[in-house]
Design goal:
There is one protein chain. This protein is of the alpha+beta class and about 550 residues long. It folds into 3 domains: about 50 residues, no CATH class; about 120 residues; about 260 residues, 7 Propeller (Methylamine Dehydrogenase, Chain H), CATH 2.130.10. The chain is built from 9 helices and 34 strands.
Length: about 550
């Protein structure tokens, strides 16, 4: 019998075990005869890929690390590793469940294919849809009217000189509507501004009454809160559309097209519920007894900052120039050194998953993308301290002046400064000077929260002071030194009370809610992952503790 015929007899179908194989499923890694191909393809839950056997992709088996001349064609289920035939027969794997590596490969391939299918058909399209929605939201009023003008210009170019007058008339109509649109918005703004002025006067009068302790004024005060709970009317203006028509010289004016009327509809404003009516419980209540679910040993002598890449991977930095990415088992996944070879001041993970670090030694803020370091901000006369990434993709950076007399928070979009927050309405500094730790975080309500050594200072998105938190009101004996800060999906504010070895949990208005103790040792850095797990960096032990508190 010739060798080829012998090979045909040996190579049999993996399903029926009797017929000669003719095809191969690259998805399931099995050989098939002509009869069994149809049976195999009948399982529609899997996207099979059947090819002629001679065109199958060859498998690359790994070499055994213990037996260099053998390939790992088996899989030890207990040890979770691929092994060769000699390993299987050795005492090291005695009594272990051994399977064919192809079976494992088939299972993993199916899992990978399912991931790919989900990414292609469900996840990525949603991201595309979200990106499209964000792009649409960026279109402003001026753009809409600019499009109308462009359409009018295009029609005018087609009709040339004969319809120049009509083009000018239509553009004039557009401008008139735009002016009327803007006038309507200005009128609505004036109405809101007038109400705000009344509110300011009422608030001022109330403060004066409260301060005066005047019985007559107090007793004669009539509340107008119910009047102002109903907001002013909300004006909605619909941008006109342009209906273009085919050109007809005999009916140029009619065929040019017309603008729809400017639609201005006024709806009654929503009524805000009173403070008494707003008492619904949070979506995720606080646990009475928070618990530690993982402890990560970072290997630093002193640990300064932690920032979540995912719920089981965190970036850390400490007393040397190396920033480490670790998993929950303390395994080092990636390490990167700073450009200056000096310890980073702080780190943060951006919404795109890139790492940002501040370096006070050279006055820079740096972005790490694909392990490449790019300096995005270089300060002059100021030194960067701590950093956080916002929901919009901006960076917030705390910094102090080179004479140590001033501190501020600056918002950057890329390398461009967008906002500087330094003083309150009376021109007084919002933040203390002379200290070099000012961790910060953006809350879900877009407040900017800063741990300012002796107080938590919270300002709104515009930089206006909302409140200062200086510790639990009933605790007057212990000092309060908030060293780090983070926020969660419930708009809670969590701050590390370093000297007292605990975490304070506040609501978004600065009201104390709860302590987290759990035998913490010098809590310093804080971050929260997407599932609201809290990660605490302990300065002295150089360990990160993952804590469930919701």
């Amino acid at each position: 019998m010739d060798p080829f015929r012998r090979a045909q007899i040996i190579l049999l179908c993996d399903l029926c075990k009797t017929a000669h194989l003719q095809s191969h499923c690259e998805r399931c890694h099995i050989n098939l005869c002509q009869t069994c191909v149809g049976k195999h393809l009948s399982d529609s839950s899997i996207r099979h890929k059947v090819v002629p056997y001679k065109y199958r992709k060859s498998l690359n088996y790994s070499k055994c690390p213990d037996h260099a001349d053998e390939l790992c064609k088996h899989y030890c289920e207990k040890c979770d590793i691929s092994v060769c035939s000699t390993c299987v027969s050795s005492s090291k794997h005695e009594g272990h469940d051994i399977s064919d590596i192809l079976e494992k490969l088939s299972s993993k391939t199916e899992s990978l294919q399912k991931d790919l299918d989900e990414l292609e058909t469900r996840i990525y399209p949603r991201y595309e849809e979200m990106a499209s929605d964000v792009h649409t939201e960026k279109i402003e009023l001026e753009t809409n009217y600019g499009e109308l003008t462009t359409i009018a210009d295009q029609q005018g170019e087609a009709l040339h000189r004969e319809i120049t007058a009509i083009v000018n008339q239509r553009k004039s109509n557009i401008q008139e509507m735009k002016n009327k649109h803007l006038s309507t918005l200005n009128k609505n703004t004036d109405e809101i501004t007038q109400k705000m002025a009344e509110l300011k006067q009422i608030m001022s009068d109330l403060k004066s009454i409260l301060k005066s302790n005047d019985v007559s004024l107090t007793s004669s005060y009539k509340s107008r809160n119910s009047e102002f709970r109903t907001l002013p009317p909300k004006v909605r203006v619909t941008v006109p559309s342009f209906s273009a028509q085919k050109i007809n010289k005999d009916q140029l004016n009619e065929m040019f097209g017309s603008l729809s009327p400017l639609s201005i509809n006024t709806e009654h404003g929503d009524t805000i519920k009173s403070a008494e009516a707003v008492s619904s419980p949070p979506v995720k209540p606080l646990l009475d007894e928070p618990r530690v679910t993982a402890t990560i040993d970072t290997g630093y002598e002193y640990l300064a900052s932690v920032s979540c890449l995912s719920e089981d991977q965190v970036w850390t930095c400490g007393d040397n120039e190396t920033m480490k990415l670790l998993n929950l088992q303390s395994k080092l996944l990636t390490s990167i050194q700073t450009k200056s070879r000096k310890p980073p001041t702080d780190i943060a993970v951006t919404r795109d998953g890139d790492l940002v670090y501040t370096d006070t030694s050279d006055g820079t803020v740096n972005l790490i993308k694909n392990k490449q370091i790019q300096t995005v901000i270089t300060l002059q006369g100021w030194y960067p301290l701590n950093v956080c990434s916002t929901a919009s993709g901006d960076l917030l950076v705390t910094m102090y002046s080179d004479d140590d007399k001033q501190s501020k928070v600056v918002r950057y979009s890329g390398s461009t400064e967008k906002q500087s927050i330094q003083f309150d309405d009376q021109g007084r500094p919002l933040y203390s000077s002379g200290d070099y730790i000012k961790y910060l975080s953006e809350n879900k309500n877009l407040d900017i929260c800063v741990a300012d050594t002796s107080a938590v200072v919270v300002v709104n998105q515009s930089g206006k002071l909302r409140f200062r938190y200086t510790g639990h009101p009933s605790n007057t004996k212990q000092s309060f030194y908030p060293f780090s800060i983070t926020t969660d999906s419930q708009s809670h504010i969590l701050t590390a009370d370093y000297d007292n070895h605990r975490i304070h949990i506040l609501d978004q208005d600065g009201q104390f809610l709860h302590y987290i103790h759990l035998h913490l040792r010098a809590p310093w850095g804080l971050c929260v992952d997407i599932r609201d797990n809290l990660f605490v960096a302990e300065l002295d032990t150089a360990k990160v503790k993952k804590i469930q508190y919701l």
